[in-house]
């Protein structure tokens, strides 16, 4: 009993949590309902599936996602190791070959001697023992109802999250597109699909008028600002997209020597370079409408859509009233939650919460004091954000420097300030990991 734990869900958070437990000698029963039952957004049988973008966002430590990844890397994260190993070129971002990434995570988990994988849906949180629930924003209905019963009068919250389409490289008209990175920084990894004013106007009008797929319950129109459907953004005004995903600045067209009026960027989706996704084009238009409207982008006039964008309801808990900083249910601390359902938003943030929950559950089971990641680190800031009772209107949060403790002195320039915050975080993290290294091995 003592050295045993259950993890439910082998997504980003559950895979990381199971790994951290197993690496510390804890026997883990990992339950994943795929392939017996699939969520509406998951397609592959593998664990840690990235269901939309293949980007884990900024790689440099002067960006908050870059800092979070570097902290996880230093702390021994499985997911970051797999991401580094399956990286595809994407300018300043860490993007991965999604199939190779998920396959590698799955192989590592399945071959770990301390992890037993069980395929099938869990409908109830076990009545005994230590559990990490990491079933994600699309937790199956039966388990969802059981969680509701367990957390009592507290309400679940929700918003809608959309995915972007993927096209085959062979079908992109490269006569109408060019490789470049913004401001020619780094290598030219993105395919840029330019539009002139006339083409953009026609595209924008068609996008705004296009027919959306019916999404159950979407009447309240709660979308996450950071992952807003492209048509919702377009309807905010003619120029909105020109300051968002279609921003042309710094993407000089080599044929004209000028920045185009608008540019759609395509990012490599697999190592072979045979698939590309439309950056920032998460959408819930009907599939034929996606084909019709996105084919108005000249370079995509004959594009083959190997996957269309979809939108789903994302559910999360009112964590500030339910969880402590270690993702434990305050009223039943043997139960932890991790991942997107706790209100951390994004792949890496979900992995980070799984990392914290797994690592500290292992320590708890071994009778060791829990590691308190400070609010100067990105890992610590996330746990503190979701458990902060002062957060009255709780909303999911990507990692950002706004939730990390400020420096306490003035530094000129945002990049320099963020770099100093990151260096302080990494120094403190290294010290912390050093003090506990004997315990955790
Ligand atoms: C449509 C959509 C698009 C998104 N796009 C992005 C994006 O581009 N970038 C980004 O960073 N984030 C995106 N997200 C958010 C994304 O869900 C999270 O970043 C991440 O996948 C959350 O990790 P998780 O481990 O919490 O959940 P998941 O990765 O969803 O993992 C949960 C796992 O639990 C399993 N499961 C569910 N119920 C049960 C059950 N009852 N029993 C057993 N197993 C169960 C599921 O099959 C799944 O494998 C998107 C989400 C959605 C829904």
UniProtKB/TrEMBL annotation:
Positions that bind FAD: 9-14
Family: Belongs to the MnmG family. TrmFO subfamily.
Name used for this protein in its record: Methylenetetrahydrofolate--tRNA-(uracil-5-)-methyltransferase TrmFO
PANTHER family: GLUCOSE INHIBITED DIVISION PROTEIN A, METHYLENETETRAHYDROFOLATE--TRNA-(URACIL-5-)-METHYLTRANSFERASE TRMFO
One Pfam family here: GIDA
Physiological role: Catalyzes the folate-dependent formation of 5-methyl-uridine at position 54 (M-5-U54) in all tRNAs.
Cofactor requirements of the protein: FAD
Keyword Flavoprotein applies: yes
Keywords of this entry: Cytoplasm, FAD, Flavoprotein, Methyltransferase, NAD, NADP, Transferase, tRNA processing
Gene field: trmFO
Reaction catalyzed: uridine(54) in tRNA + (6R)-5,10-methylene-5,6,7,8-tetrahydrofolate + NADH + H(+) = 5-methyluridine(54) in tRNA + (6S)-5,6,7,8-tetrahydrofolate + NAD(+); uridine(54) in tRNA + (6R)-5,10-methylene-5,6,7,8-tetrahydrofolate + NADPH + H(+) = 5-methyluridine(54) in tRNA + (6S)-5,6,7,8-tetrahydrofolate + NADP(+)
Gene3D superfamilies: FAD/NAD(P)-binding domain (3.50.50.60)
InterPro entries documented for this protein: FAD/NAD-bd_sf (IPR036188), MnmG-rel (IPR002218), MnmG_N (IPR040131), TrmFO (IPR004417)
Source species: Butyricicoccus porcorum
Enzyme class, UniProt record, top EC level: transferase
EC nos: 2.1.1.74
UniProt subcellular location: Cytoplasm
Entry's transmembrane regions: none
One GO CC annotation: cytosol
GO molecular function (one): tRNA (uracil(54)-C5)-methyltransferase activity, 5,10-methylenetetrahydrofolate-dependent
